[in-house]
Amino acid sequence: MIVLSPLYSDTLRLQFPFIVIGALLAVAVAALMNPRDRWIVLASATLSGVGLAIYAMWGMSGYDSISPVAFIMRLAVAVVFLFAFYFSMKTLRAFMMQQIGKKETIDEFEEDDVKIEQEMLERERKFQDKKYLGR
Q: What is the DSSP annotation of 72-134?
């Protein structure tokens, strides 16, 4: 954001302080990111969502009045915020589902599969019993 701001800013003197503050907030939240702390995850999702909305609207609103380079740079920053928003929301979802700190296992659904298989075998056995008894 800071390095490329001269390429996409309309009035750099007015917008640069906001760009610097936004970049510092993004870096601070990223540095504090801890998937076990709900407030940091929520702050990350909020900051990335707000950054995405600001840069996407800023790029689209100036589409016909700015240079193509400025348009692409604004949308590039919006895409970076989009990825940050996606991964923040995934972490927030895992936190809400209490999956943080649990190891992923291949046999996560094995218990359900075993129960279903047992029920199917029981139904097949009952069907075979009725078939033989009915003859």
A: HHHHHHHHHHHHHHHHHHHHHHHHHTT-TTPPP-GGGGHHHHHHHHHHHHHHHHHHHHHHHHH
CA distance 110 to 19: 50
* Total number of residues shown for the chain: 135
State pLDDT tens for residues 15-62.
778 888 888 998 998 898 887 788 888 899 999 999 999 889 988 887
Judge contact between 75 and 55, C-beta under 8 A: yes
DSSP reduced 3-state for 43? helix
Between CA 9 and CA 23 the distance in angstroms is 15
Helix (H) / strand (E) containing 49: helix 38-61
Residue boundaries of the structural domains of the chain: 5-102, 104-135
pLDDT > 70: percent of the chain: 84
Give residue for tokens 């193509």.
Answer: 68
Q: How far apart are CA 89 and CA 82, in angstroms?
A: 11
